[in-house]
Amino acid sequence: MASRSIIYIQIVLFGYICRVNTVKRSSDNQKPRKRTVAVPPELAPLETKTPKVKSAPKPRAKSTTTTKRKPAKKKNQHNPFSLWLKVAGVFLLLILLSPLYYQYISRGFSNAWRWLTESGDNKYSRKYHSFDIRIPNGFKIHGIDVSYAQGKIDWQQVSAMEEDSVRVRFAFIKATEGESHLDPFFTRNWREAPKAGIICGAYHYFRANKSGLWQALFYLNKVQPERGDLPPVVDIEELSGATPTQMRHELQRFLERVKKDTHTQPIIYSSLNFYQTYLAGHFDNYPLWLAHYYTDRLGAAATTNWHFWQHSDEAHIKGIRHRVDFNVFKGDSLSFEKLRIP
């Protein structure tokens, strides 16, 4: 829906600029026509009948009129330049509003802003150079979440990386999506990460336009949580064409079935905006994992009963070739242990 509205705005802006330019060009072309047609044809024989018209003032008068035309010619000379400026402005605006480039442009501005503001530490966060991100202060337990996008991971290097007591303690690994898609790296990640001493949990990417029950059954068929694992996670980020009511209904079916089979309360993952818009007040009994980037604090979201906070999507981790999401756990070590499957 957002991309359609942006494209509509682009078409309207481009059409308006073209209309203004064509009107100006047509009006400029009509000005010299009015001046040339100002002499009626009846005056031609009158001028021939009076041979006395040798007076110099008349051609001088014409020369004065020609001098008056010079500004008009200058305006015409400036028109192509101003037209190109307008075309360039429209072209730049179309790029800025394009859904294909908006995410890269917005990320570029946000990265530039963070670069300007990362001159030093503050009371809310500090820069960890080995991870290449700022990490909020006051949290003791840190972790990552991965999928096929990170490729083949060396989990031993991930576990060994540390800076000032900050290291990867847990990892949420993508397992399934929808009713039939299995992440191609799930089996390997699910096997190798615990060998490196990392506590793991498996998450399912939820499709709101699909059956919540069938998605739960597919997830449970591919993931068998064990004692000591983190609870199952459902990742809900979009409506996928469903209405908010339909989305909440199918999500409830998913949560109830997973809870019934695992005897564990599943965790809900969502962006801060999506949660506040569609989920707040409907699933408050479930542990919450919020995604909210490029800020030192969650602000108003701090009043919600959240457990995990995904505060960055650009962490550098040894053993992983691509950038990674970085998370913190809200509580202490004791509350973290209580959250794990008994």
Question: Can you characterise this structure?
Answer:
This protein is of the alpha/beta class and 342 residues long. The chain folds into 2 domains: 2-103; 124-339, Alpha-Beta Barrel (TIM Barrel), CATH 3.20.20. The protein contains 10 helices and 12 strands. The chain has helices at residues 2-36, 43-49, 57-97, 99-117, 155-160, 186-195, 212-222, 244-262, 272-279, 333-339, and strands at residues 125-128, 133-136, 142-146, 162-163, 166-177, 181-182, 199-205, 233-235, 267-271, 288-291, 306-315, 324-329. It has an 8-stranded mixed beta barrel with strand order 3-5-7-8-9-10-11-12. Strands 1-2 form a two-stranded antiparallel ribbon. α7 links the parallel β7 (199-205) and β8 (233-235). α7 (212-222) runs parallel beside α8. The longest helix has 41 residues, at 57-97. It is globular, with a radius of gyration of 34 Å. The model is unreliable at 23-27 and 46-50 (pLDDT under 50). The chain crosses the membrane at residues 6-23, 83-102.
Largest sheet: 8 strands, mixed, barrel
Helix-strand sequence: HHHHEEEHEEEHEHEHEHEEEH
Number of helices: 10
CATH topology of the largest domain: TIM Barrel
Strand arrangement in the largest pleated sheet: 3-5-7-8-9-10-11-12
What CATH architecture of the largest domain do you see?
Answer: Alpha-Beta Barrel
